[in-house]
From TrEMBL:
<feature type="domain" description="NAD-dependent epimerase/dehydratase">
    <location>
        <begin position="10"/>
        <end position="248"/>
    </location>
</feature>
<dbReference type="InterPro" id="IPR050425">
    <property type="entry name" value="NAD(P)_dehydrat-like"/>
</dbReference>
<dbReference type="GO" id="GO:0016616">
    <property type="term" value="F:oxidoreductase activity, acting on the CH-OH group of donors, NAD or NADP as acceptor"/>
</dbReference>
<dbReference type="Pfam" id="PF01370">
    <property type="entry name" value="Epimerase"/>
</dbReference>
<dbReference type="InterPro" id="IPR001509">
    <property type="entry name" value="Epimerase_deHydtase"/>
</dbReference>
<dbReference type="InterPro" id="IPR036291">
    <property type="entry name" value="NAD(P)-bd_dom_sf"/>
</dbReference>
<keyword id="KW-0560">Oxidoreductase</keyword>
<protein>
    <submittedName>
        <fullName>Short chain dehydrogenase</fullName>
    </submittedName>
</protein>
Amino acid sequence: MYSIDRKSPVLVTGATGYVAGWLIKRLLESGVTVHATVRDVTAQHKLKYLNRIARTAPGTLRYFQADLLDDGSYAQAMQGCRVVFHTASPFRLQVSDPLSELITPAVEGTRNVLNQATLTPSVERVVLTSSCAAIYGDNADLSNLEHGMVTEESWNQSSTIDHNPYSYSKTEAEKAAWCIAETQQQWTLIVMNPSLIMGPGVNPYMSSESFQIIRQMGDGTMKAGVPDWGVGVVDVRDVAEAHLSAAYTTHARGRYIISGYNTTLLEMARQLQPTYGKHYPLPKRILPKFLVWLFGPMLNPAITRKTITQNVGYTWKGNNTKSIGELGLKYRALSVTMNDFFAQLIETEQLGRESRVPLKGRD
C-alpha cells in the first residue's frame, strides 16, 4: 500500500477533466494541497464541482491559469510540486481538423508540461494520462500480438492522422513523453494507459465521449441494437486511484494498462437491464456488421467504414496484471460502473424519463 505525501503540493493539469475530477477529489480528501490548472480561472460554472469538494475536504485547492500550447504557462503552478499529474488532453472522436483539435494539443501540451518539469527542481515524479489507444489502434491489430492480448510492451502502429486520429494523438503524445524522460535524470515518468473510461463524473455534464455512449444507451439512440464491438472498460474512480498509487508507490515504473474488464458494447448495456430495462429503451441485440458498415458513417461520421471493418466482430483483450500486482488496484465490478453512471444521468435529468425508476446511491 502506498503512503501519500501531504507535505508537498502536487500539480494536476486539465483540472476540470473527467479523470482529473476524481483524482483531485481523492487528493483533497487525503489532505494534499493541489495546484489545479485550467484554461480560464474565471469560469466558475466549470469550477463549482471542484469547489464543492474543496469546501469540506482537509486538503487545499489552488487554481492556476495555463494553456497546453502556451510554452512556460505551467511554471508558476508547478513551483514547489513534487508530483505532476498530466491529465489534460482532448478526447473527441468527431473533429473537423484532427491536427489542430487533437494532435497538436496532445503532443505539444505534453512537451510543454514535461519540459517545465525538468526546469522545476522540486519535481520528482510525473504521472501521465495516456491511453490503451497508444498501445493498439484497431481490434484487428490484436491478432498480431502474443496471445491476442494488449500488454504494456505493445505500441499502436496502425493509427494515422486520417485513420483513428484520436488514437494517433495519444500515441504520439506518449512517445514524446518518453523521449523527454530519457533526456533527464531528475524525475521518473509513470504512464497510465486506461481502456474506455466509464462511470459517474464529478461534473455530471461532461462532454467526454463516455457520456455520449451511455446517454445513447438510455435515450433510444441505440434501441435497435449495437455493433459487436469488443472493448476494455474501466471505472473512472479506479483510474483516479491508479494515478494516486502511481504517484506514491516507490517501485512504480513504466507503463500500466488500467482496465477492469474485457467486454463488449452489448454486455455493457446488459448490466443495466435488471434495474432499468423496463423503463428505458436499452439495446438488447447485436446489429449485423453489414448494416453497421452501410449506415454507421451516416449516423456518426467519426466512425468510418475502415474503422468498422477493423473493429466490429473482433474481441478485445487487455492484460491488467501489472496494475494489480504493482499498484495494488482492485477494480470495481462492471455492473457497479454502468449502474452508477446511468443513475447519474437520471438524477441530472439527461434522459427524459427520470420519474420512472427509483435511484440507487453511488460510492
